[in-house]
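Why does residue order matter? Because the sequence determines the fold. Keep that principle in mind as you read this record.
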Amino acid sequence: MSSSKAFKTPEEMQEAIDAYFAKCDAGRKRKYVSQGRILEIADSAIPYTVAGLALCLGVDVRTLNNYETKKGYEEFFPIVRAAKLRVLQCLEERGLTGEYNANIVKFQLSCNFGYKEAAKEDGTDGSSDSERNEVLERNLQIAKEQQEKSKGQ
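Structure:
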């Protein structure tokens, strides 16, 4: 039972990933009518997401995760991990500045990056998961506070 890979080489995948980030950075264009003329204005950048990355690569999220972790895909691991790290960085930074809704950031971090809200179910403490959860909770609290501040202004 052999399945064919969507990308034959890491270079081919990297090219598609670069195109995704360039498209996001370029932003959406919106058309406005002013004095009978149609004007195109670039809006802010499109947020990076794991789903958006997968869609641009022509695969689903599960397949993208295979390229990151599944045996037989090892040559793609660093490429996918770097791309997902870039998505994570964007989420964290914009969540901290209040640009993104903290609840959406929290949801994305738990679904796509393995962050958890509570300690491990087995009751262990001091693990890297626990430390990561504390940082996440602090970051989310800061983001919520900044969101509330920006609403009050």
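The chain has a mean pLDDT of 83.
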